[in-house]
Amino acid sequence: MPELPEVETVRKTLKNLVLHKTIENVTVFWPKIIKYPLEIEQFIDALKGETIVDVGRRGKFLIIYTNQYALISHLRMEGRYGLYPKNEPFDKHTHVIFYFSDETELRYRDVRKFGTMHLYLKGVEFNQPPLSGLGPEPFSDEFTVKYLQTKLKKTNRKIKPALLDQKLLVGLGNIYVDEALFRAGIHPERLASSLKRKEIALLHDEIVATLSEAVKMGGSTIRSYVNSQGEIGMFQLELYVYGRKGEECKKCGRPLVKTTVGGRGTHYCPNCQRIR
Questions:
Q1: Rg for the chain, CA atoms, rounded
Q2: 145-268 has which fold?
Q3: Cis peptide bond N-terminal to 37, omega within 30
Q4: Is domain 4-127 in CATH 3.40.50.970, yes or no?
Q5: Are 61 and 144 in contact (CB under 8 A)?
Q6: What is the rounded CA–CA span in Å between residue 106 and residue 231?
C-alpha cells in the first residue's frame, strides 16, 4: 500500500497533469469505489463542469480540489491514476474515468478494487470520514517529541502497531515504520510505553528524516507501485531492512530477520535492534 512518500509523489505528478482541466463527464464502472455520495449519479453530476484547481494530500489520501468540491481518494493496494488521450483503449481494471474538455482523460485503475473515493463540498472534507480523526502530519509543527512521548506513554501496544495507527500519526505504513525503527535502534516488539524520552526523541527524528528522504527520491517501488506518470520510486535502493530478510545488515553485517508483529510482516536486525 502506498505510504506518505508514494502518495506525495503521485500528488505532485498528478497536479502537473490535471491542474486547470475541466471535467465534462465521468464514468464509473465499479460503483463500490464511490463511498460518498451514495448515489453514483449524484457523484457524476456534481463533477460535471468542475475545474481542477489543486491536488492536495492528507496522510495517505489524495485530495483533488475542484471549484466547489474535494474528491478524497485512497489508492489502497494497487490504485493508480494516469492521463490518456481521448478514445485510447482501456482494460477491465479501469474503474473510473474523468473526461476533460481538452479531449484527455484521467483514468483510475485498480486491479484489486480496494481503492475508495469520497466527494464533499470544500470546507467540510476534514470533518467527515475518512479524514476526520486522523493524527498530525509528520512534517507539521504539531508532531513534536512531546506529542509523540505523550501518545506512546498512554498505550499498551507494541511500538510498531502504535506507529501504524493513523490516529496517532498519518502517513506511516509497513515500509517506513520498519525503516524508522531500525534507524532508531528500536525493536519493533518493544512496548511503546517502555521507551525512554531519549529513544522517543531519536525515533521522532528518524521518522521525519526517513520520510523526508523517501519523498525526495519519489518513494519506494514495492510490487506494482508507480506514480501517475509511470515513474518508479528510487528509495527502495536505500532501504535498510524492509524486504531484505536473510540479507546482511548494512550496519553490522548480521542476517536480517522477518517476523510478524501486530499481524504485519516485520523486518528488523536482531543485533542492532535488541529488546532492552
A1: 20
A2: Helicase, Ruva Protein; domain 3 (1.10.8)
A3: yes
A4: no
A5: no
A6: 17
Angle CA 229–233–234, to nearest 5: 140
What residues act catalytically? 2-3, 60, 264
Q: Tell me the pTM.
A: 0.92
User: Which triple of cell numbers denotes residue 5?
Assistant: 512518500
CA distances from 179 to 9, 124, 156, 231, 276 (A): 19, 35, 22, 22, 19
Q: Is the pLDDT of residue 226 over 70?
A: no
Q: How many CA atoms lie within 13 A of 178 on its CB side?
A: 27
Domain ranges of the chain: 4-127, 145-268
CA atoms of 153 and 107, how far apart (whole Å)? 44
Question: Could you tell me the maximum CA-CA distance found in the chain, to the nearest angstrom?
Answer: 61
DSSP 133-149: T----TTSTT--HHHHH
What's the whole-number mean pLDDT along residues 52-61?
A: 97
Instruction: Label the pairing between strands 79-85 and 23-28.
Output: unpaired
pLDDT digits 0-9 by tens, 140-151: 999 999 999 999
Interatomic CA distance for residues 107 and 129, integer angstroms: 24
CA distance 16 to 35: 26
Cα 10–Cα 15–Cα 21 angle in degrees, nearest 5: 135
Mean pLDDT of 192-213: 97
